[in-house]
Amino acid sequence: MPWIQLRINTTNDLAERISEQIEESGAVSVTFQDTFDTPVFEPLPGETKLWGNTDVIGLYDAQTDINQLKTLLNLDQYSYKFEQLEDKDWEREWMDNFHPMQFGKRLWICPSWREVPDPNAVNVMLDPGLAFGTGTHPTTALCLTWLDSLDLTNKIVIDYGCGSGILAIAALKLGAKQVIGIDIDPQAIQASRDNAERNNVSEKLALYLSKDIPDNLQADVVVANILAGPLKELEPQISKLVKPQGYLGLSGILATQSATVCNAYQPHFDLDPVIEQQEWCRITGKKN
Q: Smaller CB count within 10 Å for the chain: N or C?
C-alpha cells in the first residue's frame, strides 16, 4: 500500500516529545534520523541516544488527512515536510540487491536464492532472516577474510555473537572440526540453525544462548563480531574461551575505538597490527 512520510527537523531535547505526539496522531512507525547522517553507537540499556540536529520521521497511510495532521501536531512551529513513498515489496527489493560476495581467496557468501558463481569455491549459502550478518557490513567482511586466511583444519572454533551464523558456517566450510555459536538472541540461534541445515553442516554446529555456555569451554579459534563496549566488558569471558596459543579475532569496532579494545586484550594476547576497512577495524592476535 502507498504511504506518506512526515519529516520534522528538531533538536534532541524535543525529539522524544514530538515522537510521542506523532505516535498519538496515528503514525504506524516513528524513527529518528541524524540530519547530517552522523552514526550513533552503543546506547546504554534503556537509553535512546539522539543527535544534536534530529529528524523525527512518522509514517502514515496515504489516505491520512495532511491538513488535519498539520493542525493536530501544530506543525507551523517546526521545519517539516511531507513526502510520498513509492509502494515497494521491500523484502524483494532487499533480496534483489544481495549478491554473491567473495572474501579472501577461497570463500564466497551466496544468497540462498541465487546461483553460486564458482561451484568449486567454498560456498556458504545464506538466508539471514531476522539476524545480523550477510557479509555486506565491513565488520563481517573483515572477519570472513581473516577466517579464510587461517588453516582451520580439525580446529574447534567459537563464534561469539553468531547472529545469522555466517562466520560459524564459513569456519566449518573452511575445514573446522566443530564450531560453537553463542548469542544472546534466540532469533539468532534459530537463524544460525536454519542456515547450518541449508549448508549441510548442522551436525558440526553447537548453539548456545550466552547464559547457557558450558563450563570450561575452549577453542583453537574464537571470533567475536559484536561492539566495542561489550568486547571490553566481556574480555575476561572471551579471553578464557581461547586455548593457550589459540587465535582471537575481534570486530564490530570503530577505528577510533581500537586502542581501548587492544588495551583490554593486550595482557593475554600478542596482537597483530589493527586492520581497518572504511571506519571499522579488526583486531587479531595469538594467546600468550
A: N
